[in-house]
Structures are given as structure tokens and as C-alpha cells.
Amino acid sequence: MACSSNALWAGETTWFCCGAAWGPCGSAGGGACGNCASAANHGAWPNASQACWDITRPDLCGEGGIPRRGCGSVMNVTHQCSGATVCITITDCGPRTRSFCGEQSCCGGSCRINRVLDLTPAAFTAIGSLDSGVLPVLITE
Amino acid sequence: MFSLIATVSPLLLAGLLGWTGLAKLRSRSLLAQAGRTALPRLVRGPRRAAHVLRASGAAEVALAAALVAAPEATAPAVGTALIGVAFLVYLGAAKAVAPESSCGCTANDTQPVTWRSFARAGFVAGGGVVALGADEPWWSTLADRPLPALALLAAGATALAYLSGGPVAFRRLRLRLLGNPLSRDARSGGPHRVPVAASVELLERSLAWETVSPLIRSGLVEHWDEDGWRFLHYTGARGSEGGDRPVSVLFAMDATAHLDRPAGQAIRVSVVDQETEEVLPVTA
Amino acid sequence: MTPTRTSPARRSFLASAALGGATIVGASALGALDADAAFAAPAPSLDPAVTRTSFAEGRIGAVKGSVLHVAGSRGETHRIQLTNATSVWKARPTTADAIEVGDGLYARGVEMPDGAIAADAVWVNIVNLYTTIRGIQRDRLHLSHGGHELVARTIPETAASYAGGALTSDLSRLRIGQPAQVLGAWRPADNSIDLVRVTVGH
């Protein structure tokens, strides 16, 4: 797998912090894979493992087909509106898709539904503004 | 005052014991619940522990009924004091042999034994003793002095709610009684303005944003409202023959527009060269 | 509330430029939901500025003029150069004057030959946390975050989104027990956060 252009999934991404960090993030730790770092282009995937899936439960929002992509998987994440792109490595489990079922972000007349990806601040700022909180993205691999 | 407390206390005790007793009797997962407590270790076996919990529930319900029906009788008050002491002894033993175990006090809680568990058991023991001093039944007191009696009941019930559910259940109860303190009127006093974040959200999902976002490098630099317009200022760079030139990207939008109000979503955009102040075409 | 970045005269000039600019009717919502169509659509023919950038993270150790000296969380150090084009976020869009020693920071910018980062945007103390609402008071929310208690103070900018709806200043529909994504500004002094945005589901 590489940061290629084969369609994987589409949806919303939010952001989170992990690894050594300041403030309330200090307790986050290295994530499900142990090596997650806010300053690296990392991401959290809702089906990083079965245990992860049991927490995120995207199937409860109709996203039951999200494939398993474990620690170290590489994905290309593209902002649907601007086309800005970042290549990330999966190092954690997330986001809690099931808590925000049906939420959507739209632009250019097309909408992305449900939180299916979490990015580190480094990766998120590469394609958008942290204070936006959530972005519509296309994910390829 | 003491007589007031003494006559009202059977009601509070009955409410508490009736609730915890019924919860234990009606629990479908009493065995599992018993397993989370220290009881299996204290009485040697989860089944016996479940029996103890059920017997305790039955005793609590019986005491609650007696306290309500015969508040002046000695037996229910003494029984309540004794069961309170028994709770205290159990909690002490539980804390000693299994500090992390659940209380089992209400049959569906999973919280460990805390100071609140002890305080509540102490309330039962002390309340039983106080109830011995009741010189008239609670219905007479409620009829004669309704206001102080009801106030005392409310205060006691609040304290018990806090002791039983902890701060979260207490806050939930307070919200239910007093309403949500974050209601529209309570906040900032002013008219219901559209938050700037809502304007930014609308902007970032607009065609205007899609058109010029390749130029934008900054986050939102500043914003201001004027004549019903909301202006949003970003900075960026536009490539030209002499290299990248710094530009300001200005958006003007209806100050009352947001994602859920589709009217007024027309957004005006312009790109201004920061040095020459020349207004540049939006698309190169 | 928001510090003024530009003089009233320049604001007035920028405002008239904006109003004289192109009008683009923003399409939003009610669009095609088909992801396949989105992948099949031609990629935007642009070279987004933000992807050629560098990123830095850490605590601010010193502010010298317009340069922030930042200690990265993994032991590295950064020099962050602020310019008059840099956007500064600290609970709201603000100016460099609001930045204090001890604040946490994320910065996006362009690395210069001397190793410093010329910042396009800095976000000071920003956090985005998955929490559960444990209490609601007139001026704050009590949250639990990863087993820790966290106090989130409401500020004039505080906005909420319910079940995917637009951001609103109406916070009255929040409930105790709800999972909530909370975007805010950490306050190093007392470890609470200023609540900027709270998002809850159904």
C-alpha cells in the first residue's frame, strides 16, 4: 500500500492529539499502535482492529463496509473542497463514528457523511484549519 | 426543630430503603451484581452473596413499608438503625478485603465504595435512632406545619440524591428541577447572533471558498460586521512573474447566514495585493 | 472583543474591495451523496498552497519580538517567525499580543533558509477532545476526558452543533451524559479550557 489514488472511502475527518503533548493532550499517549505523534502526519482509522471497531462502531451509522487497515497502513487524504492532500500513516484507532451518526460536511454540491477519520494536528493543518474542527475528505490508497 | 426532623425522617428513610430494596429485588442480574461486590469473598460464594443481597432488599422494603405505615412504632426505627449499622460494618469489611469492589448498595451501580456509601449508611443508622424520637406521625406534621416539613423533606431528598448518585446524578437532578442554565436568555444577554464560526463553516463549504482556497495560506486573520455584512479576512500568496506576491483575500457575506438558513448564501470575494493595494482578479 | 488587526481606514478599503468583488453563490448541502461520483470527478486543478508547508508543535518558551521560541514535545526546538500576514487563533482570531510564554502551539508555515518557520497560521492552546458531558452550569460544562475531569468555560464565542446542524450560540440543548466533541483553548493557569465549539450527535 502506498499513498496512491485507489478509492478507499469518503467521509468527514476531525483531528486529535497523541504522543508527547501539552495540555489535556498530555494524557493521550501513543495511541493504539504506540507510536502516534501529533507532530507527524498520522491518522486514526475506525477499523484499525476488531477491538477498535468495537469502540468506533461505524456500522451503527451505516458505514459497515469500512475495511480493516491496521497500524502502519498508508492513506492519501484529500480535502474535498480545496483539493489539498496529505499522505498519512495509521497509528491509532478513531474517531468515535457512532457518537455523531449522520453528520455531514458539504461543498461543491456534494456531501460527505459521518466521521470516518481522525488526523493529527500536523496532518490536519496540511489540508485545513484546526479551528474548523471537521473537514470533508476523500481517502485513497 | 428536633421533633420536626424526627417526624419527617421516617419518610426520608422509607424513600431511600424502598428504592434501594426494590432495586435489589427487581434486579435481573443480581448474581452478576453480587460478583462485583466484596460479598462473595465475605460470605464465601457468589450464590450466597446474591441471596444476601436479595434478603437485604426484602428487609429494606419491609422496613420502608413499616416506617411509612407506623412511624411512631419502635420496631421499624430500631430495625432501621440496626440495618444501617449492618451496612456500615459491611462497607468497612468490603473496603478492607476488596477496596476496588462495587458497593452493591442499589443493585445496579458499579461505582466502588466511596465516602458517600459510608455517609448514606450512616444516615440510615442515625436516621433510625432519630426516628425513635418521633412524637407524632408524619401525616400530622405535614398537615400542621406543611412548609417547614416539605422544605426539610426536599433538603433531605437532595442530600440523599447526592449521596446515592454522586455529583453527576445530582447535577442531572438539578437541571431537571431548575432548567438548563445555558438557555438562550441566560447567555450574553444580547440578541441571538450567528456565531462567526457558523459563518466560517458556511464559507468553507461554499463555491467562493473552493474558488480561491488555493491562494489562502492563513487561518481566519480577522472579521468584522458592518451594515448587515460580515467580512472575513484571510491572507495568502499569488504566484506571479516576479515570484509569490502576498495578498489579502476578503469575503463578504450576509451576517445572518449559516448552513441551516439557505437564504443569503451569496458570498462576495476579492483578492487584494497587500503591497500595491491593487484589486486582483479572483481567478488568474 | 476581537482586537483590531488593521486600521479603520484600511478596513474600510478592504470592505469596499470585498463588496465590489465577484459574487459567488455558494452551493452547500443537498449535493450528490455518492462517493464514487466524487472519486470519479476530476481532481480540483489546483496546487493548494497549504500542502507545501511545514508544521511545528510545542510549548512557547520565549517571545522575542515577533519570534516565538518553541520547545517541541519530543525535545526538538523551533523558531516561529510571525508576520503581519500570520493568522493567530487563541479561542478566537486574535493578534500576536495574546500569545504568552507557557502557551501550547501548533504552527503552519514555510521553513526559511535559516531554519525558522515563517508562520502562515498559528493556533495557540487549541485542543479538540472527545468527551462526555458530566455537568452543566451557567458558565461552564463539566466534562470527562479519558477518565479525567475537565472544566470547559463558556465564552461569548461558544457555539454548539446538534446532530450535524449549523453552529449556534444556543447551548440549551446540551444534556448530561452526551458524548461531545469539544474544541477549545486550553488555559495553562488552571488546566481548564475556554469552550469554543461543542458538537453532539443525536
UniProtKB/TrEMBL annotation, chain A:
InterPro entries with a match to the protein in the record: RlpA-like_sf
This protein's superkingdom? Answer: Bacteria
* Name assigned to this protein: Uncharacterized protein
Natural source organism: Streptomyces radicis
From TrEMBL, chain C:
* Protein's UniProt name: Cell wall protein
Is Signal among this UniProt entry's keywords? yes
Does the UniProt entry include the keyword Signal?
yes
Query: What PROSITE patterns does the record tag this protein with?
Result: TAT
Q: Which domain of life is it from?
A: Bacteria
InterPro entries, from UniProt?
TAT_signal
Which keywords belong to this entry? Signal
Give the range the annotation lists for the signal sequence: 1-27
